[in-house]
Structures are given as C-alpha cells and as structure tokens.
Amino acid sequence: MSICRDSEALNVMVKEALHFTKYGKVADYIPALSDANPETLSLAIYEGGSTCASAGDTQEMFTLQSISKVITLALALMDIGEEGVFAKVGKEPTGDPFNSIIKLETHSPSKPLNPMINAGALAVTNMIQGSTVDEKLGRLLSFIHELTGNTSIQYNEKIAQSEYDTAYLNRSLAYFLKQHDVVDGNIELLLELYTKQCAIEVSCDDLAKMAYVIANEGRHVSSERPIIPLHIARIIKTFMVTCGMYNASGEFAIKVGVPSKSGVSGGIMAAVPYGPGIGIYGPALDQKGNSIAGMKLLETLSQRYNLSIF
Ligand code: DON
C-alpha cells in the first residue's frame, strides 16, 4: 500500500506524536540551535514521484548535524575505498553517548569504534578529498545536491560559526586522534570543515529524498541512475541500524526496525530498504540526543505500515 495515499492517517499520527515534544528539550550545547521551536514536528515521505507531506511545515529548514555523518561516510568510501576508511575507523557500536571520549583511551589502538560517533565522524571528514576546506565542502554539497535533486542546499553560517566557537569537546577528540595518527593535517581546518558539514541546511523533503536513494540501492530519485554504489549503500544502511541512533540504537531497532540516522537539530532520516524515504524534524530531544516525538512517530509509522526489516 502507498503510504502517501494515506494522508489522513499520517496527519493523525503526526498530531498524536506532537504531544511527546513536551517531554524533550532543544539542544543548546551549540548555542545557535537553542533558537529552534520545541513544539514543532513535521514529516515528509518520498516514494518516488513527488513527496507526500503529512503535517507541519515540511519546508522548514534545519541543519543536518549528525545526519551528515552518513553522507560523508558514503563520500569517503567512494573517495578512498573500504580499506582506507576502515584502517582509521571501526565498525562496532559503542553503547556510549555520541561525543564520548572514553573508549579512545581504553581501547587499543585508539581508533574510533565507528563512523557515527563524533570521533569516528571527525576521522571520516578528514578523508574527504580536496585541497582546501572550500573544495572539500563544495564536493560534499554537490553530492547532497545530486542525492536530493535540490541544488539550493547550502550550509548555515551562523550555526557553523556557533559550533566552531564552542566545539571544545570535538576539538579535544580531534587533537587526541591526531596524537594517535588517526587524523593528519591542520586540526582547526578539520573542525571548520566538520562544523560546516554539520550545519548544512535541509528540509524534511530533502531528507526524505536522500533516504530514498540510500534505501533503493543508491539510485537517483527520478532517473534511477546510480549515485552511490550498491555495496556502499549497504554499508551505510548497516551503520544506520547498528549505530544510527547512538546508544538508543538497540531499542530503536526493536521498536522501529528501520535504518535511521538522527541529528541534534532534531532531524531523523529513515530509509526503508526498497521502500520509502522518510524525513522527520522535531527539535525537542530526549536525553540521548534523538528527536523525542520523531522517534515516537517512526514507531507508529513502522507498526501501521509494517516497515521493520526484522
Ligand atoms: O558534533 C556535534 O556534536 C554536532 N555537530 C552533531 C552531533 C549530533 O547531531 C548527535 N546527534 N544525535
């Protein structure tokens, strides 16, 4: 059954999940993110053709934050291959918060356990090819333009600067990784690229379209042209299942069972293999940094349309 044809039910599900926003809190450790309205929830679903949006302002823009980690991972795998990427970053979940430093020291070698935690993402961003920050960011943006079909996507300068100015923990992680030869080069330039990458601004529609490509063997939303090689689309979907919702990934797999990636802006990108792409925005977060109402909405969607892959 086409979910897009069920717009009345989608409206009801969004309305019901909206109640959960009051149990969450907008992220404020990146000062500019605290401007978001916590009482917002929107959803876009893409099944090919056109998006069907059920509720909320689906044109509202928000930043990718950690959702960008999936995209940079795909680009790094395409740039330098599996062997190069996984020489510097592991494939295992941590069970720790996304910005934790602890396992870098307790594990030997000091290689981040996976590309979805901040330490692992910094290592992956360091692999993007190009000779300047602008060139690397330009390549990443072009890739996102191709995935979404939306060439107007850019990064939000205010949010990037706000994160760059306050990224004390990420700076510590990056310098630690440099000490252990996981990253090389100028760390301040790496942080500039990473914070700009996290501040790339999208709508739910854009997220749903990116998710659709990842869900459907890496093929372009309308032309079916391959954008991400099949084996790379598989790798990133697998990380979305095992690490995409951080230390809530296990429970999320049981309750929802759809490869998904969250960000502290409140976005969630969910890719149902050989099915729809789903984009959600709800900036009120739970304690683990996932959109509280967004998770609830995905749970309801998964049950109603039998979306779990398990
Ligand atoms: O590096 C950070 O802390 C943010 N730019 C991204 C973290 C994030 O989105 C974690 N998500 N749940």
UniProtKB/TrEMBL annotation:
<dbReference type="GO" id="GO:0004359">
    <property type="term" value="F:glutaminase activity"/>
</dbReference>
<protein>
    <recommendedName>
        <fullName>Glutaminase</fullName>
        <ecNumber>3.5.1.2</ecNumber>
    </recommendedName>
</protein>
<dbReference type="InterPro" id="IPR015868">
    <property type="entry name" value="Glutaminase"/>
</dbReference>
<dbReference type="InterPro" id="IPR012338">
    <property type="entry name" value="Beta-lactam/transpept-like"/>
</dbReference>
<dbReference type="GO" id="GO:0006537">
    <property type="term" value="P:glutamate biosynthetic process"/>
</dbReference>
<feature type="binding site">
    <location>
        <position position="170"/>
    </location>
    <ligand>
        <name>substrate</name>
    </ligand>
</feature>
<feature type="binding site">
    <location>
        <position position="163"/>
    </location>
    <ligand>
        <name>substrate</name>
    </ligand>
</feature>
<feature type="binding site">
    <location>
        <position position="194"/>
    </location>
    <ligand>
        <name>substrate</name>
    </ligand>
</feature>
<comment type="subunit">
    <text>Homotetramer.</text>
</comment>
<dbReference type="Pfam" id="PF04960">
    <property type="entry name" value="Glutaminase"/>
</dbReference>
<keyword id="KW-0378">Hydrolase</keyword>
<dbReference type="GO" id="GO:0006543">
    <property type="term" value="P:L-glutamine catabolic process"/>
</dbReference>
<feature type="binding site">
    <location>
        <position position="246"/>
    </location>
    <ligand>
        <name>substrate</name>
    </ligand>
</feature>
<feature type="binding site">
    <location>
        <position position="264"/>
    </location>
    <ligand>
        <name>substrate</name>
    </ligand>
</feature>
<comment type="similarity">
    <text>Belongs to the glutaminase family.</text>
</comment>
<feature type="binding site">
    <location>
        <position position="66"/>
    </location>
    <ligand>
        <name>substrate</name>
    </ligand>
</feature>
<feature type="binding site">
    <location>
        <position position="118"/>
    </location>
    <ligand>
        <name>substrate</name>
    </ligand>
</feature>
<keyword id="KW-0007">Acetylation</keyword>
